[in-house]
Each structure stands twice: as C-alpha cells, then as structure tokens.
Amino acid sequence: MTNLVGRTAIVTGAARGLGRTYAQKLLEAGMNVVAADKADVAETLDRMYGPGKTLGISVDVADFRSVSAMADKALAAFGRVDVLVNNAALYGGLKGGRAEQIEEAEWDRCMAVNVKGVWNCCRAVIPAMRKQGGGSIVNVASLAAIYGLPYALHYSASKAAVIGITRALARELGRDSIRVNAIAPTAVLTEGTKEFFGAKFEKGMVAIRENQALKRNLETEDLAGTVIYLAGDASKFVTGQTIMVDGGTHFL
Ligand SMILES: NC(=O)c1ccc[n+]([C@@H]2O[C@H](COP(=O)([O-])OP(=O)(O)OC[C@H]3O[C@@H](n4cnc5c(N)ncnc54)[C@H](O)[C@@H]3O)[C@@H](O)[C@H]2O)c1
After folding, report:
1. Residue 202 domain-assigned?
2. Between 153-173 and 117-132, two packed helices, what is the crossing angle to 10 degrees?
3. How far apart are CA 201 and CA 198, in angstroms?
4. CATH number for the domain including 55?
5. Alpha helices in the chain (DSSP H)
6. What is the best residue among 91, 120, 222 to mutate for testing ligand 1's pocket, by most ligand atoms within 8 Å of CB?
7. Is residue 212 a part of any domain in this protein?
8. Number of domains present in the structure of the chain
9. Are strands 32-37 and 54-58 parallel, antiparallel or unpaired?
10. Per DSSP, what are the bridge partners of residue 56?
11. Does this model's pTM top 0.90?
12. CA angle 35-16-62, nearest 5°?
C-alpha cells in the first residue's frame, strides 16, 4: 500500500493488544505513527520497527482537552494527520454482568471512553483533515454490536453507537473527502480478551469458531489487513461501512 508512505496515522489504545498491532503494521506500510494511550506506550515504541517515524503520546480519549493536545502534538511532529484509528476502548477490565446488575459507574465510564472517546478523537482531527484535503477515520466497533453480547449490555451498546457515529460522520464529512469506516471484529486473543472472558475464555473461543464459516479463531494480524485497506487509497470510494472481520459469523 505504497500510498500510505510518508503519511501520518494516529492509533489510540496502542499500549497493548490490537492497537499495538495496528500501529506496527501502519509503520511497516511506511506511515509515521502516533501511538497514543492512557497507559504507558514505551513498550509499544520499543517493539515498533519500520521506515516511518514514531511518536508516543499519553492521552485519555474521554477527555477532550487531552485529545486536543494529542492532535496538536501529532500535527507539530508530522504536519498532517491522514489516518485516525479509533481503537481505544474499555473492554479488558469491564466486569459486565446481568443487565440489571451492571454497575452504573461502569456503564457511564464505558460510554465516556468507547463512545465519547471516538467523538473526541474525530473532532480533534477533523479540522486538520479538512484543511489538508481529506483523510480516513477507522473506528473499531465489535461483533458484539451486531450479535448482541449477553452480560455486556453497556459494551454492546457502546459499539453499536460506534457504528452509528461511523454512518453519520461519513455522510457529514464526505464533502471534505474524509472517509469514515468501521471494523467489527469477533473475539481475538489479547490481554483484554483474557480479562473480559476470564475463566470462560477457552470455552468461548471454541463456541465462537464453531459458529463461523471459517473454522479457526481470529488472529490479530487478520485485522491489520482490513485496517490497512480502510486507511489507504485501495478503499478510496468506501465510506460509512462496517466491515465484519469475524470469519463469517454474521453477513451484513
Ligand atoms: N480483542 C477482541 O476480541 C476484540 C473484539 C472486538 C472488538 N475489540 C475492540 O478492539 C479494540 C482493542 O481491543 P484489545 O483487545 O486490544 O483491548 P485491550 O483492552 O487489550 O486494549 C485497549 C487499550 O485501550 C487503552 N485505553 C483504555 N481506555 C483508554 C482511554 N480512556 N484513553 C486512551 N486509551 C485507553 C488501554 O490502556 C489499552 O491499551 C477495542 O476497541 C475493543 O473494544 C476487541
């Protein structure tokens, strides 16, 4: 994807898991990559290799002032923001539970990070993307939004909101040549997944793969290809879409 060479991407939630993989793959594709997270991104930066430059930024996506500072630092370092991957979310660490038992504070925090966080990051980079003549925003939704994950009502609702944001923003920003798409992955092994599923992890992964057309579990690298596709010019006439990366669990 040579058209990504020399362009700049911000990846939120890049301290571990899928965000770290997206950051690495975009760097390999020749981009300058901002790895942003509330947690320390030092390990991610240490492991990243590729032709582009890297910058680590501490950010809380739920806090617009922090997000705005992130966008300013990215622009100061690289002069433009071509791609935003809205990957940060509360996922690992969520307790979940029956609908009537989910803690209200956890519900609110889930919405603040997973929904408002996406809006915050979009609104921080839209002016720069508009000024430079376009860009690509890739939002990370989840199969949970489409399938309806029991005992995770807040998480499912937050990811459904990400799909709504994707569609509304795509219509709003099309005239500025800013594309907005989403990916909806099934479960993949990350620290977050182990925390999320706990002791039910192995059983859950077997059930998930049995329900897929493709009979293996998703791997992190499977997702990176879709992110690269949506980031670059190969998808230049694609916007407002949610791509299921779920081995054929759900057909949109
Ligand atoms: N792993 C899966 O099976 C799976 C499936 C579908 C969708 N997803 C989505 O993919 C994304 C990444 O998943 P993961 O498994 O790597 O998750 P993870 O829990 O391992 O990592 C999430 C990252 O986001 C960061 N983060 C959390 N709150 C933040 C905040 N307020 N500001 C900035 N950063 C913050 C965390 O520090 C962490 O590094 C999430 O959006 C998740 O909902 C994951």
Report:
1. no
2. 20
3. 6
4. 3.40.50.720
5. 17-28, 42-47, 64-78, 104-111, 117-132, 143-147, 153-173, 191-197, 201-210, 220-231
6. 91
7. no
8. 1
9. parallel
10. 35
11. yes
12. 65
d(CA 208, CA 234): 30
The Å distance, Cα 37 to ligand 1 centre, comes to 10
91 in catalytic set = no
Look at residue 56 and tell me if it is in a domain.
yes
Q: Who lines ligand 1 at CB under 6 A?
A: 12-13, 15-19, 37-39, 59-62, 87-92, 113, 117, 140, 142, 185, 187-188, 190-193
Residues sharing a CB contact under 8 Å with residue 55, sequence separation 6 or more, in sequence order = 32, 33, 34, 35, 73, 74, 77, 78
- Residue 175 CA to ligand 1 center (angstroms) comes to 31
Could you tell me if residue 67 is inside a domain? yes
Taking the CA atoms of 42, 92, 94 and 119 in sequence, report the sign of the dihedral they define: positive
For 214-227, what is each residue's pLDDT tens digit?
999 999 999 999 99
Nearest ligand 1 atom to the CA of 155 is 43
Tell me the C-alpha distance between 121 and 68, whole Å.
8
List, run by run, the mean pLDDT of 10-residue segments along the chain (252 residues).
86 97 97 98 97 97 98 98 98 92 97 98 98 98 96 97 98 98 96 88 92 96 96 98 97 88
Domain range for 93: 2-187+219-244
Burial class (CB in 10 A: 0-12, 13-18, 19+), 217: middle
Instruction: Give the pair of three-digit tokens for residue 209.
Output: 């793969």
